[in-house]
Amino acid sequence: SDAGSQKERVVTEEEWIQKWEMGNIGFHKEQGHPLLQKYLDVLLNGRSGLRIFFPLCGKAVEMKWLADMGHSVVGVEVSEQAVKEFFSEHSLPYCEEPVPEISGAKMFQSTSGNISLYCCSIYDLSSSIVGKFDGVWDRGALVAVNPRDRQRYVSLMISLMEKNSSYLLVTVSYDPNKHKGPPFYVPESEIKSLFG
């Protein structure tokens, strides 16, 4: 059950953009993820008006769902197509502006201001650009980053978290010798060592 066969696997940002262009997005859930509904109380912890981060957000329907509850949502996604599809599929007007700190990056914000999606590499973000978050919904992000980048990814996530924030993480369990990923297999022991 070690993830040896996946350690060297690299999926480029171009390949992710291509997946969106080809409609090869089996990871997208039209109805939202049942685990977010199940563990929503853990994420919110009785709090309202939270800032919630969606790493590698795609066009996750949960972003609108949480924004409609009064939370402010920030996502990051490398595919501009995914971001634009999110706004159009929810009939949400938005504006688009460059992100001065990140060359080539754009920020798409709903006119209501409660959903901001950054179109760039997640590794270009920092708390000085996006601030810190009360909650993170990581559904398909940790398992999508290249195995060699996990430590870098988790360090970034930790730097974006407020002191008392909640982090909901969904992983997948399978025999990594039978599937090359993504999604990648991340053993529980590695999750514990990554997040501490």
Automatic annotation (TrEMBL):
Belongs to the class I-like SAM-binding methyltransferase superfamily. TPMT family. PANTHER family: THIOPURINE S-METHYLTRANSFERASE. S-adenosyl-L-methionine binds at residues 16-27, 56, 77, 121-122, 139. The keyword Lipoprotein does not apply. It is found in: Cytoplasm. Keywords: Cytoplasm, Methyltransferase, S-adenosyl-L-methionine, Transferase. One of its GO terms (molecular function) is thiopurine S-methyltransferase activity. It comes from Dasyornis broadbenti (rufous bristle-bird). This is thiopurine S-methyltransferase. The keyword Transferase applies. GO terms for cellular component: cytoplasm. It catalyses: S-adenosyl-L-methionine + a thiopurine = S-adenosyl-L-homocysteine + a thiopurine S-methylether. The gene is Tpmt. Its EC number is 2.1.1.67. It holds the Pfam family TPMT. GO terms for biological process: methylation. SUPFAM superfamilies: S-adenosyl-L-methionine-dependent methyltransferases. InterPro entries: SAM-dependent_MTases_sf, Thiopurine_S-MeTrfase, TPMT. It comes from the Eukaryota. Its main location: cytoplasm.
